## 1
Amino acid sequence: MNKNRLVRLTGACGVAAALVLAPLAAPSVIAEPASQAVQMSPADGTAQGAVEWFQQHQGDTSYQGLCEKAVENAWGTTGVWPSAIAHWQGAVRAGKAHTDGSTPPKGAFVYWNISQYGHVGIADGKGGIYASSIGGKIGHADSVSYFKNYLGWSDPQVPRG
């Protein structure tokens, strides 16, 4: 056997052996279950995520007339309630509506009776709100009194019909 052929054969065998043995030498990695992951991004189903979603969408005009869709999207879902007033009525029926004048916690839904469909936004936890229709777009107001006919607030949670 000539010298060049012997070198190529030895090299090929070495590469093949490395490829076969590599999985045995590599450390095994076990992934953690997804349920243990901490959700920390907008629309992740947390109150903080809902507020962050609104902050990232400030100035967006595409949600005009779609306030319920906006709050549901902020919580990582959509299509749960047909309107803000239906959402409010569902919260009342479920015993989750608060009409005592207390400051809504961060991520809570805040409601107004300003039309047959109502209006809904998300509380910032400091007495203010994020909502559509603030100056014609998604924005922030320092008080729940920004809109007339304030109804109250419901618990911060992923909307469920």
## 2
Amino acid sequence: MGRTTADAAKALSRQMGQRIRAIRMMRGYSQGKLGSLIGLSFQQVQKYENGTNRVSIPVLMQICEVLDAHPMDIIGEGPQDGRDKRVNALLQRLEAAESKLKILQSKLARMQKIFAEPD
């Protein structure tokens, strides 16, 4: 049985949300920062990124302006199941790298503190 229009719309919303999230993270913005720059709560940004809520054209344009992205970077080529997996894999790798970076920054700060202490 083929996909319905509603199924395709949901898939597109999820994929757009994943792309918004990926671009937001590459730009170094939190959900709260992006939300405040476009006049929304971080919860609303989170709903867009999860595909729970659909992104309207005016909001899409605001997001693109803030993230310095072209709308097609977010809209993409439409629902593509294989692409979902690649985006998720890249996001997981990015999150893992960010986690490791935070640990290294914490260790570096502790080392700097130790070396700064007088003998």
